[in-house]
Amino acid sequence: IVLDPRRKEIMALNNDIEDTMVVMPYDAQGNQAPKRLLSVPHQAWGLAMSRTHDEIAVTVELQEAVVIYKREAKNVEAPMRVIRGPSTGLADPHGVYWDDRNNEIGVASHGNYRGLVKDTGAGCVPTGAAEPEAGGVRPPSIAIFSGDAKGDTKPLRTIQGDKTRLEFPMAL
After folding, report:
1. Is the pLDDT of residue 125 over 60?
2. Is 129's pLDDT higher than 50?
3. C-alpha gyration radius of the chain
4. In what helix (H) or strand (E) does residue 6 lie, and over which residues does it extend?
5. Where are the alpha helices (DSSP H) in the chain?
6. Average pLDDT over residues 51-71
């Protein structure tokens, strides 16, 4: 969840079944309807907010992506931008943190890289083992991106390797 004390909102992701972000008022209690809903990609997991950019970042496990929305996005609104592609190093991203002071987005990845997928006419399937973007197991990591990152961009820096002792890092 993300708490926004300035706007008095509580944001929470519903993962796996409903694929929504629910926004509740601070004073909500009991069986109260949300203030607004946002449809997010399947298997969205992490949630972070930038007060400077007035945006939210959502990690998406299956898409190996960080999806950026306007903070007040609702219903089936499209994202403003997406961080995704082989150069990102994202592999089963989970936790995300937006550091407004340094304009950086940190993303924790488990390391289960599914590879890129393509629609073959019978649904999406991995692009193939012979291609460099095919799936595999990578070391867990924490990748730091610019707060303005988009597309297939390399992280500013990555924490990864045996000495880090990272193993399935979750929330940041």
Report:
1. no
2. no
3. 16
4. none
5. none
6. 94
Residue with tokens 């083992």: 129
For residue 4, give every residue at least 6 positions away whose Cβ sits within 8 Å of its Cβ, in sequence order, or none.
10, 11, 49, 71
- Mapped onto helix, strand or coil, the DSSP state of residue 88 is helix
Give 55's contacts (C-beta < 8 A, 6+ positions apart). 49, 68, 69, 70, 71, 80
Residue 78 and residue 51: Cα distance in Å, rounded? 20
Q: What is the pLDDT of residues 49-58, one digit of tens each?
A: 999 999 999 9
Cα–Cα distance, 15 to 6 (Å, whole number) = 26
Give yes or no for a contact between 61 and 137, defined as CB atoms under 8 angstroms apart: no
Tokens of 58: 């959502």
Beta-carbon contacts of 31 under 8 Å, excluding residues fewer than 6 positions away, are none
Contact 170, 107 (CB under 8 A): no
How is residue 7 written in tokens?
A: 């706007």
At 157, the amino acid letter reads: R
